[in-house]
From TrEMBL:
<dbReference type="InterPro" id="IPR010326">
    <property type="entry name" value="EXOC3/Sec6"/>
</dbReference>
<comment type="similarity">
    <text>Belongs to the SEC6 family.</text>
</comment>
<dbReference type="InterPro" id="IPR042532">
    <property type="entry name" value="EXOC3/Sec6_C"/>
</dbReference>
<dbReference type="Pfam" id="PF06046">
    <property type="entry name" value="Sec6"/>
</dbReference>
<keyword id="KW-0813">Transport</keyword>
<keyword id="KW-0268">Exocytosis</keyword>
<protein>
    <submittedName>
        <fullName>Exocyst complex component 3</fullName>
    </submittedName>
</protein>
Length: 738
């Protein structure tokens, strides 16, 4: 470090400070103050430096003193190490000289051990007999003490042999042979303890002291095992028969007793009682609940805390029950046994009736494994659904066969509240409801699967039902004298279809989760199938009625018809006769048949009107129009009479009067009338309109054709808002007028 440079730098810094302090004239008066301040500061800095130097010097002084002390200690250690080396040079000679002493010491130790155990050595047989007698008399603590004395004597002698540098196998064999009966006593005591522990649940209620005694012995043996293992680590000597592991042994005995108790609960087989599984599971529930109550209230105070005996028993019962139920499942279940098993495993076992009972409060979710593996539960559910499907198929086949047999019988169908019906659909939905109620006790997902399966099976039943209905209709119309109550059973079929639709909707309302949308098409398909059956059967009713009226429709708009009202009167009388039977239709079905009958009647009447059977003058057409209007009114009054509660507004019968008014229309204004008519009924074709004017022979064919074609050209493409417009789509003639 350059002192001159430091001094120069200090001088320059001092000059700068003085310049800063004396920048104004008034500051010269304070020069003396500045000088005193600087002097005090200098004195302070010098004092600090002096103190620092003194501290440094003191530290150096202490360090030097410590180094001097260390040097002295090192010299002392060196001197003493030299003395130890000189002393050790004579050890080999002393070791050789003491060889005889060592041999004598070993002999003395063996003699001392022999003297200590002399009583047991010479009285092994007597001690064994005494111990066996104590075991037979259930004086187990005394017996264990005698056994411990015998084992200690044997183990001490064996240990002395083990310590000898030159070991002879014959000595150990001789000694072990001499004490071989000790092992028999140990085995006898173990057997006795096994017996006591296996009866723990019974014994602890009457004589808990017996259990406590057994556990005290086991705990002593556990401590002896631990001591022997610790000694082995040090001396490499392990007494024969150690470790006994009697604690693990009694746990195995308890587990075996639990398994035996579970398996012994079975009283019946399937051949003895159809409800064997329900009874077996209920017996198991009662046994397990009672046993675990005993364990919690009586065994816990008897067993040491570290045994955690209650949780151990819960584990034993859980594992034993799991294995037992697994074997039952593998052997195969039938019918409602699937439901009984699933409900018991998923609800009864973990629920308040067993594990969650207030006396137990066991959380099954914390156990090592589920009672039944999830794959086994899934397999059970699948098998249950397959079994349900087979049951549905059998029941529905029987239902179809039974219904079919009734159709061809000589007996009228059953009535309920005046309406024809059969028991088949009700039975089917009662069976479905029972299945769904049962699955609802298991879990919602299984209920949904069962619901979807039920819907699919009912839809398949509907398809088979429809085929049989079609077959019934074809069979009847080949010879209408074969089936006596055809009409009545068709009415029954219509009502059954309506009932199925209503019951299906009720079932959906009760069991279909609002959040589920999958498989909804299956439900819609079911409704569509039975609506189709309902529509088909209703059409068969009217088809039969209209078949009887065929000849009367053929008489319409003929010369014979002009002078008589017999045709329409007969049609009304015939329909009235049939509607006496149709009164047995449910209200919704009756209304549907009324509407369909009006539509068919209007269609047949209009078809006859357009069939070119008459061609008259303008004046005669006025009379024809009046007759048509009267007959339309007559027919409408008939429907009002037989169905007073059903509104006939916008009836298809109104089309008859609409067309009749067109017959007498002014030819000059015909285009306007046609335009209005086509606006309401766009399905009217050119052929329909030309055929209508065939009745008027005062109009030239070319003129009619021209006006009709002009009206058809001006007709805008539109969708009809009149619901009766579809009638014209169904009136088609094979021969064209033009």
């Amino acid at each position: 470090m350059d002192l001159q440079q430091l001094e120069e730098e200090a001088r320059q810094a001092a000059l700068k400070d003085i310049q800063n302090m004396l920048q104004r004239p008034g500051q010269l008066e304070k020069v003396e103050q500045y000088r005193h301040r600087i002097a005090r500061k200098k004195a302070s800095v010098e004092a600090l430096l002096k103190t620092g130097m003194q501290n440094q010097l003191e530290g150096v002084r202490v360090g030097l003193k410590q180094l001097e002390t260390c040097m002295q200690d090192v010299r002392e250690v060196r001197r003493r190490m030299g003395e130890v080396e000189r002393l050790l040079q004579g050890v080999p000679e002393i070791y050789d000289a003491l060889e005889v002493v060592r041999e004598e010491n070993t002999k003395h130790s063996q003699y001392a051990t022999a003297m200590e155990n002399l009583k047991h050595i010479f009285n092994v047989d007597a001690s064994v007999q005494k111990t066996m007698a104590l075991i037979d008399e259930d004086k187990l603590l005394s017996a264990h003490q005698c056994l411990a004395d015998l084992e200690n004597s044997r183990d001490d002698l064996l240990y002395e042999l083990h310590k000898q540098p030159k070991q002879h196998a014959s000595d150990k064999i001789t000694l072990k042979r001499h004490f071989e009966k000790v092992d028999q006593v140990s085995q006898a005591l173990e057997k006795k303890l096994r017996l006591i522990i296996s009866r723990t649940l019974n014994t602890v209620r009457k004589k808990p002291t017996v259990i406590v005694t057994a556990l005290r012995i086991i705990e002593r043996e556990e401590k002896n095992d631990q001591f022997a293992l610790q000694q082995q680590k040090v001396t490499n000597f392990l007494p024969p028969g150690r470790p006994k592991a009697w604690r693990a042994m009694i746990m195995d005995v308890l587990q075996a007793a639990v398994i035996t108790r579970i398996e012994g609960s079975k009283l019946e087989e399937r051949a003895d009682n159809k409800l064997w599984l329900v009874r077996d599971l209920e017996i198991l529930r009662q046994i397990i609940l009672e046993d675990l109550r005993v364990v919690k209230s009586l065994c816990v105070p008897c067993f040491p805390p570290h045994y955690d005996i209650f949780n151990e028993y819960v584990k034993f019962y859980h594992e034993g029950l799991s294995s037992y139920l697994d074997n039952i499942v593998k052997s195969g279940l039938q019918g409602n046994e699937y439901v009984s098993m699933l409900a018991w495993v998923m609800h009864t076992y973990p629920g308040a009736d067993l594990m969650s009972h207030p006396d137990l409060n066991v959380d099954v979710l914390k156990l090592s494994r589920p009672l039944l593996h999830p794959e086994h539960l899934k397999s059970l559910e699948d098998e249950y659904l397959q079994n349900m499907e087979r049951n549905y198929q059998d029941w529905m086949k029987k239902t179809v066969d039974s219904e079919k047999q009734e159709w061809y019988s000589e007996q009228m169908p059953d009535q309920r509240d005046h309406y024809y019906n059969s028991a088949g659909p009700v039975i089917i939905f009662e069976m479905i409801d029972q299945h769904l109620q049962v699955t609802n006790t298991i879990h919602q997902e299984l209920t949904f699967k069962a619901l979807v399966l039920s819907i699919q099976q009912v839809e398949l039943f509907g398809q088979t039902y429809l085929k049989n209905v079609i077959e019934l209709k074809e069979h009847h119309f080949r010879n209408r004298d074969q089936i006596k109550y055809f009409t009545h059973y068709i009415i029954t079929i219509v009502n059954n279809s309506q009932n199925v639709v209503e019951m299906a909707q009720q079932m959906k309302h009760l069991f279909w989760p609002k959040s589920r949308t999958e498989h909804y098409e299956d439900f819609e398909k079911l409704l569509a199938t039975f609506q189709r059956i309902r529509a088909h059967a209703a059409n068969y009713l009217l088809e039969e009625a209209f078949l009887d009226m065929e000849c009367h429709f053929n008489d319409l708009f003929t010369v014979k018809w002009l002078g008589s009202s017999i045709a329409v009167d007969t049609i009304c009388v015939t329909l009235d006769d049939y509607f006496q039977d149709y009164n047995h239709l449910l209200p919704a079905n009756f209304e549907m048949v009324i509407n369909e009958a009006q539509k068919l009647l209007a269609k047949r009447y209009i078809r006859a009107l357009l069939s070119k059977r008459l061609s008259k003058s303008r004046s005669e057409c006025d009379a024809i129009t009046r007759k048509i209007n009267l007959e339309a009114k007559r027919i409408k009054q008939f429907f009002e009479k037989i169905a007073p509660k059903i509104s006939l507004s916008d009836s298809p019968l109104d089309l008859i009067t609409t067309l009749s008014a067109l017959i007498v229309a002014d030819i000059e204004l015909l285009a306007l009338d046609l335009h209005t008519l086509l606006g309401s009924y766009p399905s009217l074709t050119e052929d329909h309109l030309v055929r209508l004017f065939y009745i008027r022979n005062d109009v030239k064919a070319a003129e009619v054709r021209e006006k009709v074609q002009d009206a058809m050209k001006s007709k805008k493409s539109m969708v009809s808002i009149a619901k009766q417009d579809c009638i014209f789509k169904e009136i088609v003639f094979s021969d064209k007028l033009w």
